[in-house]
Amino acid sequence: MEDPNERLRRIRQEIDEIDEKLVYLIAKRIECGKEIVHLKKILNYPVEDGKREREIRDRIFKLCEKYNLDVEVVWDIIKTLIEYSKKIQREELKK
Length: 95
Fold this sequence. Notes:
Pfam families: CM_2 (PF01817). By secondary structure, this protein is mainly α. The protein has helices at 4-43, 50-67, 71-94.
């Protein structure tokens, strides 16, 4: 039987690795947003796209159901990422 302290240490290490991956993926998502804003500028599209945000919301809700996650909590996280991305896109448009 594994020592509880060792198991706790291992699980915390796994969480640290997951956190690093999450931060990497957030950075990657922001980079995608920067590419998108340049295309939106060429196409003369606005930063905000309600239809796309609804598509994201619907997909996230389905994923939450699939993985048995609290939709409100996960959607709050995703909304924060969307708002952050839009903020960066607006800044990119000013350049």
